[in-house]
Specification:
Radius of gyration: 16 Å
Shape: globular
CATH topology: TIM Barrel
GO biological process, one term: glycolytic process
Enzyme class: isomerase
Bound molecules: 1,3-dihydroxyacetonephosphate
Strand order of the largest sheet: 1-2-3-4-5-6-7-8
Largest sheet: 8 strands, parallel, barrel
Number of helices: 9
Protein name: Triosephosphate isomerase
Subcellular location: Cytoplasm
Number of strands: 8
Structural class: alpha/beta
Strand content: 15-25%
Function: Involved in the gluconeogenesis. Catalyzes stereospecifically the conversion of dihydroxyacetone phosphate (DHAP) to D-glyceraldehyde-3-phosphate (G3P).
CATH superfamily: Aldolase class I
CATH architecture: Alpha-Beta Barrel
Length: 227
């Protein structure tokens, strides 16, 4: 499905404790306030599946963090892609470096998501992987070098070539928005990623492990909105 062209600020809650407690709800409130105030930034919250029903009452631009390439059936403990028909999420992150899946499964999920009118944000560890994923035409691709994830060392400054090479590889296949992630810590890291040509950032620890997550989000969104 077509993605509205705004800069994307996607927060992956992962399984940090803050993804489940009151902080998660406060982040959702902040996202809701900011998204009506700043029109150039789309804030996506990628939340644990068990939190959907709580967070959806506060903010509706939410994604799952993973989905299984399964139909309905006898699959104990899995989250079938078909179930998204009944879940009030806009889409799902898939193939995060902490939850890799095989190419054939990415293909199946992306196809199913389109049929369900949901978005797929597919992660890639390298420009080469991003290029392969581009052929599946997902809604967005996020490139994240695994060695920088959670490091506080921003990909946009430490390895800008990963972003530029991914963009080149993806755009030679299709005009899919590419996000940059791993080590994004301060708003300037996001601005640098945008200057390199990316459509926004995917971030986790700088928000979820912060003592003041709402301030972090406000600072990023204000700065990204002014680009
Ligand atoms: O994995 C990430 C987002 O999906 C990035 O994590 P950090 O922002 O903690 O580096």
């Amino acid at each position: 499905m077509a993605i509205e062209m705004k800069y994307v600020f996607a927060i992956n809650f992962k399984s940090y404790e803050t993804a489940y407690n009151n902080v998660a709800l406060e982040i959702a409130k902040t996202a809701n306030q900011l998204s009506s105030k700043y029109s150039n930034v789309r804030i996506i919250l990628s939340v644990p599946s068990v939190m959907i029903s709580k967070i959806i009452n506060i903010y509706d631009d939410i994604y799952l963090q993973h989905i299984d390439p399964l139909d309905y059936g006898a699959y104990t403990g899995f989250l079938s892609v078909d179930s998204l028909k009944y879940l009030e999420v806009k889409g799902s992150l898939i193939n995060h470096s902490e939850h890799k899946i095989i190419y054939r499964d990415i293909e199946k999920i992306v196809k199913k998501m389109k049929e369900l009118n949901k978005e797929s944000l597919v992660c890639a560890d390298t420009p080469g992987e991003a290029a392969g994923i581009a052929y599946l035409n997902p809604s967005m691709i996020a490139v994240e070098p695994p060695e920088l994830i959670g490091s506080g060392i921003p990909v946009s400054k430490a390895k800008p070539e990963v972003i530029t090479e991914s963009l080149k590889a993806v755009k030679s296949v299709s005009n899919i928005p590419v996000l940059a992630g791993a080590g994004i810590t301060i708003p300037d890291d996001a601005i640098k990623a945008i200057e390199l040509g990316s459509s926004g950032v995917l971030i986790a620890s700088a928000v979820m492990k912060s003592k003041n997550p709402n301030k972090v989000i406000i600072d990023f969104v204000e700065k990204m909105n002014s680009v």
